Structures are given as C-alpha cells and as structure tokens.
C-alpha cells in the first residue's frame, strides 16, 4: 500500500529528528518582519536572520514542513499552474537546516540516505540524478566519490552570464538576503515521458523532475548585486512534499496524489463537470482554493495592492477557469469544506476560520461577477459600434484596468465574433500607465534627498510642545538650500523637534518656528525615513541653516489629535470584544476633527453592535484609566499579547500604550493623559470600503458635542418644515411618501392616456413603402419611458410596420426605431441595421436589438431633413 501524504511528511520529520534536528512548526504565509518578501516562499524564510548572523539560533539543527506560496515576487509559479504536472502555487516544503553546524558532506549524505535507504523512501538509485554548481568541486567530489550514485548522473551546471551567482545552481531568496550554490536532486520518470537530464537541451520536458534542493548558504546578497560572505556556513534544503508524494505513490503528476484526487473529485461534483484527468482547469481551481484559503487564514484579504492584490488575482483566475469549463454559478467558496476534509494535518486552523474564509471568498466572487457584468456590457457596446474587425488594444486595456477584465477573456469574446484584439496597442497602454505611476512618485525624490542629508533629529514632543532648537537643513522645491525667504514654501529640518511627524495614521502637528525677526508657519509635517520634516511657508523675514529658533506646536490642535488617537485604541479593543478576535487593523487616520478606523470584517455591523461598541468605549472613558506609555523589548510585548500590526518591522525596544486592562497596543503616537479627557465618543458612520473591509468614523470631545448640535438643529429644521414633532415625525414622513406614490401613479396614468391620444393622431401619417407600413414622425422633448410607451401603442395599432420617432430634446436629437416581429422574421428589415445606416449617413452613436434600436446625434443643424433622409434609406432597403 502506498504511503499517504501525511505519512510521508511525518517520515521526513522523523528521519531528521533521528539525525539530531529539532522539529519546528511552519511559520505563517506572511513573512514576519520582512518587507523584501511577498509571501513565505521557502522553508528558510523564517530563519533568515539566523543565516545572516543577526539572531542567535535556539537549535543548530532544525527540520520543518513549511507551507509556502509562490505567486508573485522572485519565485512565482502562478502561470505554470495547471500547465505542468508539478507546479503549484501553494505547497509544503520539507526542509532540514544547519546553522553553522554541518555543511555539504552531511547534507548530501542525509539526503541520499533518506531517499534510497530501504527503511525510508527506498527509491532506486538509478532513478536519481543530481546537479552541482560548476565552481562547487567539493559537492561534486562528495557525490562522485562518497555516494553510490552512478557518476554520469552527477552533472555540473554552468553560469547563465559572467556572474557565478547567475546560475540555476545558485539559490537566492530574493533580490537581497541569504544565498549560495546549490545541489539539486532529480527523479527520472522513465522514457514514457519526453525530456532529457538537467543541463541537457531537452531538460524542459516532464521526464526529469526536481525533487530536492540542497542549498549551501554562504553569502548575503546586497541590492547592488554584491555578495558579502557570511560569518558561518549553513545549510538550507527544500523538498516539495507533493512532488515526493507523487513519486512514492507511483504517479507522475502532483495533481494525481491522494489529497488532490479527492479534492478534484469533490470540485467536479460541486461544479458539475467531468473529472476526466485531463481537465487542466480543475487542477488550477484545486491549486487555487488551497492557496486562497491558507492566505486568508493567515490574514491576507483581497484588495487592490500588494498581497491582497495577488490574492484577488488568484481568486479571479480560479473563477474564470470555472467559467471556462461551463459553470455559471457561484462556486469557489463551496470548495473550502472539501479542502478542510482532505487536508487533515493542516486543517485545524482552517476549520476555526471556515466561516470567515467562506464569507470572504463569497463576497469576492459576487464582486467579480458584478465587475464582469459591467465589463461585458461595455465591451458589448464597443463591439456593436465597431467598424472593421480589430478592437483597439486601448479598449481592452481599459477593461482590464477598470474592471479587472483579463485580456484573455476579451480576446475569447472577440474571437467568437471574428474580431481580433490589437495586442501591441494593449501593451503600449500598459507601459504608459506604469510610466505615469513612476513619474507621479515625487515624494520619493524629496524623501531620498532628505535621507541623504545625513542628519538625525530627536522628537521631544511626547513631553514638550515648545522647545528651543536649531535649524540643521532647509529644502526648497526638493533641493537643499541655505535660506528660505518671506512668502516662500519649504521644508525645515530641526535638531530637536516637538512636532510629531505624520505616521501610523496620526497626522503631523502644525504650529510655528520663530526667531526675533522671522516666522515660519508649519502647516504639516512628514517623516522621511527617521527624519521629521516641517512643511510650511515663511510668513515674516527669512530663515537660514544653523539658526536658533523656538519651535511651538499648536497646542489646541495637538490636544484634539491626541484625544482621537486614544479613542482609536479604545475603539479597536471594543471592536474585538464585540465582533470577535478576527478584527485586524487595515488602516487608520487620526486628525483633530475625527478618527477613522479600517478593519477586516465580512458584514455590515448591526445597529445593536454599533451601539454596544459605542457604549463600551464611553464606559472606559468614564472609568478614567490613566494612559501609560512604556518602553519594553519587542519579545516581551509579543509574548504578552500586545496588539501590533502584522508584518510591520518593529525596533527591538518598542513603545506600548496601556489603558487600564482594556487596551494595550504598540504605538508611537501621542495620547491623552487619561481616558477621561476624551469626554465622549460617538460613531458617526460605519460602511464598507472594499470587500471584507469596513470603516468606522467617529468623533470625540468638543467635536462630538458640535456634531450632536448639528443633528439637533437638523431635526428641528425638519420638524419645522414638516410641521411635526418627535412624536409624529415618522407618521408624517410615511404620509408624505404614500401621497407621493399616489400622485406619481396618477401622473403616469395621465401620461399614458395622453400618449394614446397622440398616437391616434399619428396614425393618419402612416404611409406605405412597397408593402410595408411606415411612420416617421418628429416629437419634442419626450423622456425615454413615454417614448417607448408611445411606440408600443403605435405598434399595437399598426400590427405590422416600421416606426421611426425623431425626438428633439434640448437640441439633442435621438432617433428611435422600432420594427414589428413579422418584418424581422421575414428578413424585410431590422431596427439595428437601419440604425447602423443612419449612423453611416448622419453620424452619431447608438445600438440596440433587431426590434428596437436608437441613435443619439449631437451636431444636427437642420432637423427637418432627417425625416427625408430616413425615408430615402428605407426606400432603398425595403
Ligand atoms: N531555499 C531553497 C529552495 O527554496 C531550499 O529550501 O529551493
């Protein structure tokens, strides 16, 4: 009997445990404190700082089964999924690691023993091939002299360019970070499959599959490409669990291993298509439901940037593959259940978050359906009006950019109608957009200039709002200057500053910088790296570099900002209590007017939930907890469960803000002294800003009071104008509404009557062109609805014929054409064809269906000629 995937994982870990390795849990898919990586893409990511010598290892030998995603960034397999037998975007990487302990010899011996020993994986030695880096003679010697692999199965791989790190046998984590030469182990599936050994011309076939990569970490790659030697030599290995399982289960494709077989069979039942083992779309969907569920589990949500954007693309790709094989129903979220059932080892946490994951996927799928509908409608419009058989690539780009409409889909739809999409044009639009995005990043330029000025200023504004200090650099129009003169705008860098630099959602302070003869009005502040810049204008005199000045923060504004910031902490803690622990901050804004807090939650908050949150926050305000700021080591903060942002890089010592036992959060912002100072807290709005993300806006203290005053006044005005009071206002409104509805109904009835009367008078003007009854008539200022009513009425009386109404509305002409069914069926005439002819003759834009079509014309000078022209067209085609 074949071993199942869970057994194989366990066997790998047991083997290395026996060899003195500590089994360490997989880290999450969101790399902890690493801005250089989109997703965890290898077992070594969680040990990056150990390899670099920054952190000390707890164990010198470690083994893991790491969940990885390769979709975006340096290692990206998204486009291969479904098209090769082995690529997956989500997979588990089995690895053994040595941190300055063993090196090449043991790493190679361990790998060989596990793969070939009859007590372990027991693979035939003749089936294994290995590659080594051309400069790595040590590894070559170990393989050829100390391991019983056929020598011709050991292949040296050269460099792609002059750089020895530019080789398939040199592994790099990303553009920067740990790296080194590697030795890869391949399995030969035999001559049933096409392809040659690694390094040969035919290496890209499916016969030889890479199963294990042994990396000998020696360098730290810098962003300029330089390789710095690391103080210790380490080992990082990675074997694809799904690939080794395929081999041990005697199948060729990762999609044919036990868990995928079961998953794919469930998927084909849910979306009701045949699972015939060749359905690549089913592979893609199976792969993507794993990736998406685990990404959401680990805290990624669909959005328009960064990780969220990649997730959104994967979800959409899966849905489009569903459509490709014929499902028009919403299906993707339904796949979470079978996934949990079959991924036993990994499914505990998935199960905990099942409802949440399903809701996010469902929302996203609905959203995409809407988007597709809108895009389709637009494309349809463009295609109706298209002259010739080439669609401008700009239109395809617009659909892609605005509606997320993949180019492939546009191409498919066009292809069905014999239309071709101009790809060059599409690529050009894409390029232009990227250029614009780059150019608009001016902040980057100034930021770079300021960071380069090599200064550091100290923020003293937690305690002092005024201080005597010195200007150390000045900038005007992005360039360093020695002086800023009256009326000129600029940026001032001070030695010490009481001004808070805009960050962490809190806006910067404003205030003044003064000397005896000059005054610089600070309107805002920004952080450039660690440097705080004061942005503003010189109101009086001039300021120079090196001058002594008094820096004075606007106290009133600062106070209001601080109250709102403290209230944001209370709000977050209250949301967690009321809605659940899945509440993760997705953004925030704190200024002197209000506070805004974005968080992930899958549905609208109910009125009761909003009130409960509001009450809970106000309760903490009235308890009047002191607000305490402590500096503590990051590890202590992590261990004591302090709220912090996921994926943010924190210093070793961090600032923690505590409000009684209600809220403890990492924060560099400014705060009230005690919760009581906030006075009162009122939520003014709760709404959705993106799928799965909600926003709360709230006010505190004086602003809360003035918001209440505004509401009171508004209510009073309503009472006065409706002659009501708070007891009968709702009845009054209902009364108004039903009266309005009654009146609208009456008006509609009267209009219809009027239309019928008018139509009776039109009947006289019907004439024949050949044997077809034709009515061409000018009408004035009619809205679309009465116009279509009029047409219906005329059609009823005409029974068979063509009706053309020329509506002159505010000097815009719209021509409406209607044709009765019998004429369409007999191929006598079709409204859309007539409209196309009208457009060719008179210009304008329009479209429609065979029985009803219309065209709008803007620049008509002589309307009276239109009837004659249409009559002429009809004479020709009837
Ligand atoms: N880091 C290497 C890889 O991902 C080995 O684990 O291939």
Give a description of the structure:
With 878 residues, this protein is α+β, with helices and mostly antiparallel strands. It folds into six domains: 5-256, BirA Bifunctional Protein, domain 2 (2-Layer Sandwich), CATH 3.30.930.10; 258-371, no CATH class; 386-446, no CATH class; 458-553, Elongation Factor Tu (Ef-tu), domain 3, CATH 2.40.30.130; 558-710, Threonyl-tRNA Synthetase, Chain A, domain 2; 761-877, Diaminopimelate Epimerase, Chain A, domain 1 (Roll), CATH 3.10.310.40. Helix content is 39%, strand content 25%. It has 24 helices and 35 strands. Strands 1, 2, 3, 4, 5, 6, 7, 8 and 9 form a nine-stranded mixed beta sheet that branches. Strands 13-16-20-19-18-22 form a six-stranded antiparallel beta barrel. A hairpin with a 2-residue loop joins strand 19 (519-528) and strand 20. Helix 8 (306-324) crosses helix 11. The chain is globular, with a radius of gyration of 35 Å. The termini are far apart. Serine (SER) binds at residues 42-44, 95, 171, 213, 215, 236-238.
* Percentage of residues assigned to helices: 25-40%
CATH class categorisation of the largest domain: Alpha Beta
> Between the first and last Cα atoms, what is the distance in angstroms?
77 Å
CATH topology of the largest domain: BirA Bifunctional Protein, domain 2
Radius of gyration: 35 Å
Integer average pLDDT: 89
Biggest sheet, open or closed, and with what strands and sense?
A: 9 strands, mixed
What small-molecule ligands were found? serine
Low-confidence stretches are 439-444
Number of helices: 24
Looking at how many chains there are and whether they match, the oligomeric state comes to single chain
CATH superfamily of the largest domain: Bira Bifunctional Protein, Domain 2
Instruction: Find the structural class using helix and strand composition.
Output: alpha+beta
Strand percent estimate:
25-35%
| Inertia-based shape | globular
- CATH architecture identity of the largest domain: 2-Layer Sandwich
Number of domains: 6
DSSP, total strands: 35
